[in-house]
Amino acid sequence: MKRVVVSIFIFSLLFINAIWALNFRDPHLLFIRDFEILFFLLSSVFLVVSAMLQEKKWIRVFCLVFTAILLVIVSKNESYFYKYKNEILLNESNQFSLINKRFIVGFNDKNQIKRLAVNGIAGIFLTKRNIQGETHNSLKSFIEELQEIRKENDLPPLIITTDQEGGAVSRLSPLVRQQESLAIASSKGESSYEYGKMQGKWLNELGITVNFSPVIDLKPKLPPSKFDFHSLIATRAISSNPIEVVAVALPYVKGLEASGVKATLKHFPGLSRVQSDTHHFSARLNVDIPTLLETDLVPFTDILKSTSSWLMLSHVILESVDPKNPITTSNLVVEGIIRSKLGIDNVLITDDLTMGAIYNRGFCKSVVQSYSTTIDYLLIAYDDEKYFTAIKCISSHNE
User: Fold this and answer.
1) What are the strands of the beta sheet with 310-313, ordered from one edge?
2) Looking at the predicted structure, is the pLDDT value of residue 3 above 90?
3) Other C-beta atoms lying within 10 Å of the C-beta of residue 273
4) 340 exposed, middle or buried (CB, 10 Å; 0-12, 13-18, 19+)?
5) What's the CA dihedral at 87, 89, 91, 94 to 10 degrees?
6) Radius of gyration of the chain measured on its C-alpha atoms
7) Taking a C-beta distance cutoff of 8 angstroms, is the pair 319, 269 a contact?
8) How far is the CA of 284 from the CAs of 117, 133, 216, 270, in angstroms?
9) Across-strand partners of 350?
């Protein structure tokens, strides 16, 4: 019995290692990224040692050969990744500059993002991970340095973005003063215009040019799924009444704009009817356009008419228009609905392309599809190393 249990354990570990090797550098494993190779090697060594203690020769041989194959796969893929990463950073003959113009990326390495600023990326995304240890003045100085780099290289100013909604999603706090969520503040009688104007002033002082706020999804009527770990729209939404959402969000947007910061309406076409968390899972919205025009889309269309807000597209599949592709990869939605039917000519940006709803369906395929639409900017925020993979995917496709 003991031998059977040990054999099951060995083959289970072998299976895990195989999945791991084929999904190396997966965004879901970002928390171990700095030590991922070491952990994989230790797991492989443990597997080999365990197999060598087995009496059956075929188990020992099989595990050794299979582990060797997995190590070769990981080594080859890692070598390939660093090769094209270096090519993209060098950007000889500016071969990646045209593609770069449509990317807004997060970062963890200041020198690397300076290099990408020279290479012509559209913008950067600031969040808690890449402002650790910064003071207000040091972050402001770094942003000014990036803008000076752009000027020296005859490039347009870098778009500096963040996610400062207020409440739980306040990526720059405490460098930017923490505010209650817009929904809570407005319910207490605070002017949403003054709220936005003050928030915009603080962001503008740092050099932020675009804020990924406000959330204008309607408040869901159904309780959240137990697998909703990050969307949590119910806690971020203003109201279930689209007229009330406009009444709060429109002055907020105008307040931001008055302070020199662009707002970003999210997450088109609204996630109130979606229970899947697109950070991890695919999601479908089975509602026709006429119904959406009377409900979820009202805040988007009303606010976009009178502001220069950006529009962030979710990774939801809008089944009545394109049952195969998420909105962020669908020309049927982008051109057929957003641009043509709704007449929206505001700047469009994808939600983070390293989210599970996109990544799990094939990252290369999804990035190329998204790039092939008329969406203005593609966002890679959480797992910034996927920017290099995205550029390589698009470059290879173009070739």
Assistant:
1) 264-268, 310-313, 348-350
2) no
3) 21
4) exposed
5) 150
6) 23
7) no
8) 36, 40, 19, 12
9) 313
Helices (H), the chain: 2-22, 36-52, 57-90, 97-100, 110-118, 136-152, 182-187, 192-206, 233-236, 242-258, 289-294, 298-306, 331-333, 356-359, 363-371, 386-398
pLDDT of 252-304, one tens digit each? 999 999 999 999 999 999 988 887 778 887 889 999 999 999 999 999 999 99
Report residue 124: phi and psi, to 5°: -125, 160
Burial of 312 (0-12, 13-18, 19+ CB in 10 A): buried
Cβ atoms of residues 312 and 351 within 8 Å: yes
- Determine contact, residues 113/146, Cβ cutoff 8 Å: yes
The label of the residue with tokens 């089975």 reads 286
Phi, psi dihedral angles at 325 (to 5 degrees): -120, 140
Angle CA 202–238–227, to nearest 5: 105
Q: How many CB atoms lie within 10 A of CB 339?
A: 16
Whether residue 4 is predicted with pLDDT greater than 90 in this model: the reply is: no
φ, ψ (nearest 5 deg) of residue 284: -120, 145
Could you count the other beta carbons within 10 Å of the beta carbon of residue 10?
21
Q: pLDDT for 131-180, tens place per residue?
A: 999 999 999 999 999 999 999 999 999 999 999 999 989 999 999 999 99
Residues belonging to the chain: 399
Contact 302, 250 (CB under 8 A): yes
pTM passes above 0.90? yes
Structure tokens at 31: 């928390």
Distance CA 6, CA 18 (A): 18
Using CB atoms within 10 Å of the CB of residue 196, give its burial: 0 to 12 exposed, 13 to 18 middle, 19+ buried.
buried
3-state DSSP percent of the chain in helix, strand and coil, to 5: 55, 10, 35
